[in-house]
């Protein structure tokens, strides 16, 4: 008798909570981790903030399950890979965690002094000035090139100032975080690789640019260090 009274109440509470949650913007409901926007100066601060990364992914997954109209992860495997990656960033003693925490000073100095944003805008202006051979979506082309060149510029600077191990870790972070997946999906990346406007660009970071555009447009490579 008691359960026949309580169960409908619990179901009503669950449904109401779901409706309330689903009426919100998921990126407001699941607060962005501070590490998305800054690099801590100290290891203790990094280790304090880092657990917010896997929690954020868990929140998005929970939102997706509760609010079926929203899809952040196409499969459980995609979710698990991303969650494992963020967890590894936070796991003291893991290779990625060690590389990052031992190079916080260099990472901060490199990002603070970077002119990658200005250089990216210059490259996009040069790209736009050339005629498109196939009438592609200029907005999507821009978004892809902006992401790839920005990442190439930063990776080149990290390689120069922080060393090869940090460069390889940066490649791994870009690859495993799906950084380019949405702005530069596979087919778009491959098309831009064959676009004369792209191949004629004389970028300051040519090798890094084409490594990222070619390798990460496929998004299937493993760790490189």
Automatic annotation (TrEMBL):
Q: What is this protein called?
A: DUF19 domain-containing protein
Please indicate if the UniProt record lists Signal as a keyword: yes
Q: What is the lineage of its organism?
A: Eukaryota, Metazoa, Ecdysozoa, Arthropoda, Chelicerata
Sorted alphabetically, which keywords does the UniProt record give?
A: Signal
Signal sequence interval, chain numbering: 1-18
């Amino acid at each position: 008798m008691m359960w026949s009274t309580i169960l409908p109440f619990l179901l009503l509470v669950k449904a109401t909570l779901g409706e309330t949650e689903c009426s919100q913007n998921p990126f407001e409901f699941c607060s962005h981790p501070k590490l998305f926007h800054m690099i801590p100066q100290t290891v203790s601060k990094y280790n304090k903030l880092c657990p917010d990364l896997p929690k954020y992914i868990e929140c998005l997954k929970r939102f997706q399950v509760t609010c079926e109209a929203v899809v952040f992860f196409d499969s459980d495997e995609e979710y698990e890979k991303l969650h494992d990656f963020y967890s590894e960033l936070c796991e003291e003693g893991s290779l990625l965690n060690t590389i990052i925490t031992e190079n916080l000073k260099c990472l901060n100095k490199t990002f603070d002094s970077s002119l990658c944003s200005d250089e990216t805008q210059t490259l996009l202006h040069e790209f736009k000035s050339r005629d498109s051979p196939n009438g592609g979506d200029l907005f999507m082309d821009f978004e892809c090139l902006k992401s790839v060149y920005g990442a190439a510029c930063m990776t080149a600077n990290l390689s120069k100032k922080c060393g090869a191990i940090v460069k390889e870790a940066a490649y791994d972070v870009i690859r495993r975080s799906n950084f380019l997946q949405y702005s530069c999906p596979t087919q778009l990346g491959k098309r831009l690789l064959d676009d004369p406007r792209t191949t004629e660009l004389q970028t300051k970071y040519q090798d890094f640019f084409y490594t990222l555009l070619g390798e990460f447009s496929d998004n299937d490579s493993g760790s490189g260090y």
